[in-house]
Amino acid sequence: MTSLKVDNLTYRTSPNTLRRVFQNYGPVGDVYIPRDRFTKKSHGFAFVRFHHKHHAKDAMDALDGILLDGRELRVQMARYGRPLDSHQGCRWGTSPHR
User: Fold this and answer.
1) Which residue ranges does the record assign to the RRM domain (predicted)?
2) Beta bridge partners of 47
């Protein structure tokens, strides 16, 4: 799987909204929006995982800079995977089980 990092989201953007937008470029495996553990508000970014790298690249090329919920999205290849646990200060890495 290949992950994209999507920045500049509003607090009201949902995983379902992102899935609907990104699935136009290929099958989406997962959408993850990190949230503050106390307030449950979005941190303003998300990870969208595709099954195939070429689908992720197509989505990145097409969606970087579009407006969604009044914000200009910044879409790039994720440098790291999802966090291994939810503790602050943890290292980001890719699970060996993926």
Assistant:
1) 2-80
2) 5, 32
Segment 21-32, tens digit of pLDDT: 999 999 999 999
In the chain, the domains with their CATH numbers are: 2-77 (3.30.70.330)
Query: How does 43-77 read in b/e, with b if 16+ C-beta sit within 10 Å?
Result: eebbbbbbeeeebbbbbbeebeeeebeeeebebee
Contact 1, 29 (CB under 8 A): yes
Rounded to an integer, what distance in angstroms lies between the CA atom of residue 18 and that of residue 21? 5
Per-residue pLDDT tens over the stretch 60-77: 999 999 999 999 999 999
Among 40, 47, 43, 41, residue whose Cα is nearest residue 18: 47
